Amino acid sequence: YKSQHYKAHSVVLNGTSSQSKLQNGGAERPGRFTFSSEPNVEDIRRMQAQFTDERDWNQFHQPRNLLLAMVGEVGEVAELFQWRGDVAEGLPGWTESEREHLAHELSDVLIYLVELAEKCHVDLPQAVLRKMALNRLKYPASKVHGSAKKYTEYKD
Amino acid sequence: YKSQHYKAHSVVLNGTSSQSKLQNGGAERPGRFTFSSEPNVEDIRRMQAQFTDERDWNQFHQPRNLLLAMVGEVGEVAELFQWRGDVAEGLPGWTESEREHLAHELSDVLIYLVELAEKCHVDLPQAVLRKMALNRLKYPASKVHGSAKKYTEYKD
Amino acid sequence: YKSQHYKAHSVVLNGTSSQSKLQNGGAERPGRFTFSSEPNVEDIRRMQAQFTDERDWNQFHQPRNLLLAMVGEVGEVAELFQWRGDVAEGLPGWTESEREHLAHELSDVLIYLVELAEKCHVDLPQAVLRKMALNRLKYPASKVHGSAKKYTEYKD
Amino acid sequence: YKSQHYKAHSVVLNGTSSQSKLQNGGAERPGRFTFSSEPNVEDIRRMQAQFTDERDWNQFHQPRNLLLAMVGEVGEVAELFQWRGDVAEGLPGWTESEREHLAHELSDVLIYLVELAEKCHVDLPQAVLRKMALNRLKYPASKVHGSAKKYTEYKD
């Protein structure tokens, strides 16, 4: 089972590791935060499916149950941001513990989103490609580049 | 730029293609729905980052703005399920158009989740691995296997 | 301060008290669950405003902060329903403790909704009247009465 | 039926009308935004119950359906705030049309919240009183008055 081969990095919250830079081949602007290339979305689906199977929990994991679970996790993310006013990129001033908490809650959203898509038989990685292609058609860079006004107008 | 090499499959909503079976090497139970292996989460991050850069939209994509955008997309998923009562795996009785609509809204949730994690400098794929490891410790299969009662007790 | 005059009923979760029937003058179908007439929405606004003032918390209660707090509370409601499958009116099978928990979470949603409307200068009770009038125009009873099909067509 | 007696004010979004001041008897600080005293929460419940009855829609309005509908409406509120950065009290710079849109979406959240509480047999106005009493015990004004640090520590 593939998940055995993964090792969680010692530092999850890390945008500047040499490993990340190598993985991304320098195509990004210097210092831009990047993700690890593994696990991919299908890996996450498979690991979560095994987790659910082992516990005999598929009986509870109907689509609407998973949707409500995802709503619950989004609520937990919101609670981490609710009293802070505007928050800048990279979360300056957040403690390591707060960052770790956020990493857990964002992960929970992704885990339930992936399982919801699975139960709905939506091939999520491919669906994202299609949606991104639609977004490119809907908001052509040449037309929407720039001002907030244009942004608001285009984002219906 | 890697995204040019992806081609959206002609059928996004598809759990039984021979390609999927081959990709997963028969390790799953027969006919189980699987995702495509690409794009991975980092690919999605990079494509969305390029999309945002091209439009000069980073000025609008602070963490809390992206969080509210994700809440909006979760709301759109909820609207697709709200009047249906219980929904079974595979969405029997949904039209192709309804499935496509759902695929779009689930994709929007993922796109904003990925961009939110990026702006928070959370390495989402690795964070998921860590959270899954914690879930395995929290809900040992031997203890929680089986009844809804046990499930409810162990959850939170 | 008016809130001193309110007394919480000994039983909050109660659809059949003779008091409720009297309050509603028999206009409803027999046994239909009704609310108490107090506190009204303005009372709730005033009590919460005093609560916030006493703690010097207005500095944290900008509209977007309150919106995220409301999202968090909606998430907590979702967590109470997430693993249950379909739930019938009156919540048969729920314990008193679960009902009380739900009453608390629904209250939190209302409290933040009211404070959000206040900070946005939206007269919420009057706004509801106007929205209900619009809904009556949008979904005429004569046209939408009956089938789920018609319901789905007319909704959105 | 009582709802016939209500008239929507010509200006819903209005914090400074002499009428509002009179309704509230001068107990608030001068110019503080207040709500109208009607309709109360029970009025809203009754009007929405009649609306649902007339359309034979109770068959669709199970608790979880109403919860998902409320999630959808919260998502629509989020969409109105998502690209704005921090928003100050009173929504300076918002157009009348944007304010009206917000009033509609906040109303939709309240309408579904009220109907959800009704179907769950939670006496929402009384439940709010009890929750507010608990909040007063949990966050004593003398202890939490003042700094953001104390606020964060005391919240959850």
TrEMBL record, chains A, B, C, D:
<dbReference type="InterPro" id="IPR025984">
    <property type="entry name" value="DCTPP"/>
</dbReference>
<dbReference type="GO" id="GO:0042262">
    <property type="term" value="P:DNA protection"/>
</dbReference>
<dbReference type="GO" id="GO:0047840">
    <property type="term" value="F:dCTP diphosphatase activity"/>
</dbReference>
<dbReference type="GO" id="GO:0042802">
    <property type="term" value="F:identical protein binding"/>
</dbReference>
<keyword id="KW-0378">Hydrolase</keyword>
<dbReference type="GO" id="GO:0000287">
    <property type="term" value="F:magnesium ion binding"/>
</dbReference>
<feature type="compositionally biased region" description="Polar residues">
    <location>
        <begin position="13"/>
        <end position="23"/>
    </location>
</feature>
<keyword id="KW-0597">Phosphoprotein</keyword>
<feature type="region of interest" description="Disordered">
    <location>
        <begin position="1"/>
        <end position="31"/>
    </location>
</feature>
<dbReference type="GO" id="GO:0006253">
    <property type="term" value="P:dCTP catabolic process"/>
</dbReference>
<dbReference type="InterPro" id="IPR052555">
    <property type="entry name" value="dCTP_Pyrophosphatase"/>
</dbReference>
<keyword id="KW-0479">Metal-binding</keyword>
<dbReference type="Pfam" id="PF12643">
    <property type="entry name" value="MazG-like"/>
</dbReference>
<comment type="subunit">
    <text>Homotetramer.</text>
</comment>
<protein>
    <recommendedName>
        <fullName>dCTP pyrophosphatase 1</fullName>
        <ecNumber>3.6.1.12</ecNumber>
    </recommendedName>
</protein>
<dbReference type="GO" id="GO:0005829">
    <property type="term" value="C:cytosol"/>
</dbReference>
<keyword id="KW-0460">Magnesium</keyword>
<keyword id="KW-0963">Cytoplasm</keyword>
<comment type="function">
    <text>Hydrolyzes deoxynucleoside triphosphates (dNTPs) to the corresponding nucleoside monophosphates. Has a strong preference for dCTP and its analogs including 5-iodo-dCTP and 5-methyl-dCTP for which it may even have a higher efficiency. May protect DNA or RNA against the incorporation of these genotoxic nucleotide analogs through their catabolism.</text>
</comment>
